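Here is one chain, start to finish.
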Amino acid sequence: MSSPFLPFALPEIGDEEIAEVVDTLKSGWVTTGPKARRFEQDFAAFLGDPTRGETLQCVAVNSATAGLHLALEALGIGPGDEVITTTHTFTATAEVVRYLGADVKLVDIDPATLNIDPAAVAAAITPRTRAIMPVHYAGLAADMPSLLGIARRHGLKVVEDAAHALPTTSGGALVGTLDSDATVFSFYANKTITTGEGGMLVTRDAALAARARTMRLHGMNRDAFDRFTAKVPSWYYEVVAPGFKYNLTDIAAALGIQQLKKAHAFQQRREAIAAMYDAAFAGLPVLRPPRPAAGDRHAWHLYVLRLADDAGIARDLLIERLFDAGIGCSVHYIPLHLHPYWRDRYALQPAMFPHSQRAYERMVSLPIYTRMSGADVERVVLAVRSALR
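Its structure:
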């Protein structure tokens, strides 16, 4: 009998998460309420160092897309503005700029790290540029010292797309505590921790956080939890702006509360799987993922192999052979410059992004998640070796 299909990703949900969700259901408060607030507080504590007097503001939202949108909106990005980001990302990173009527300026990646290239960012700045949105690809920190330096010199805002990057570090500091204007994490089902759907906007800017909290729920100046739990009950609220429906429910936050406690253990297991892959693929005609700088941590949301020129097999055929062997895999990402909307709107050509294009044509993301056993990892290794033969 053949082995069962090994999926590309699976969340690890334990008894603690189940008990927290059941407690939420029994409480009668299932939308945004005490658990969402507790998750925000726990997340700030996870990132912050009280000895340094951290004043991190955390705003729970229903997706990282929502968090990125709220961050840019709070920074005043709008028509006539440009925001620079990488072509090598999921469309959400760029589409939130268009939500606000601003334009996206896509740039290429560093071929070694697959992260946004600071030199390309510097070259893309125009009088219309207002912000930079780096993506910490696969869980490896982008070159934040260079990007923050560019932003300071040109008076630009920085919003980090950290969807892959919990608990990534840069220069020894957790992503989320750097000197950017805002950082946004994702808790989608396949991320390093999950709430099913969800995200967190993190900032030190109290005014930005206050605006995001207002705009995440229809532009109301008081949410339901505040109104219905006040010592003096008050049904009254005011709509101060045309906001959005971006709040995180308590059911989702309940998952996050318990998942966050396991974030470091999850990262250690992912790192161990990455190390097993690295050892197994040494000497094969592939490029293994880049490692973090000494003293830093990679979240290992993704493990991305790239075929070398002498691999003797096309990427798509490799994927077909892996699926035939019962191994789920994916590609991260089809660069934005290849998608009809972005290609046509900005007259983009593959030759404008040679490093992203080359990486895309050769890359495959292998399964890497905490529920994988040693035998599962060995199955993937054998399937890759067999496919390359």
